[in-house]
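Troubleshooting: if your tokenizer reports a length mismatch, compare your output against this known-good record of 140 residues.
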Amino acid sequence: MVALDPEVEIVIREEGQLGKWSRRLLHVDTLTSYEWQPGNIYNSVQEPEYNTISHTWGRFELKAGEMPEIDAIRIKGIDWDVPRIRPDHFTVEELENVLRNVVTPTKSVENTYGKITQYHHQIGSVRGRDGELLYQRMQN
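Known-good structure output:
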């Protein structure tokens, strides 16, 4: 039997504990992504309220060197590059506005999270300039 890398074993064990919870939640007010911790804790908040959005942007991603003046949305707390998106689909500012608009106010700012996922019930949507689905407001 092949021994698994200890980090892989941790991920496998945590996946079983996640249940309905996402691996990461985005704290919208600070645009900071927080990783799940045992007990469904994100940034020291246990089981925060959140909304979800479903998105596809791969076909709108700018290629390396294409429109170099266009930046990607800046998300803190991640160690990967967020794709830069064609501004005729949506701009960084429009995406930030969408994220802020789908957040339902909660009792404290610290509990205002968004989760990017699929397979939730749609409760609203907005179309972009080109008619493509820009976001869907979701609920569990």
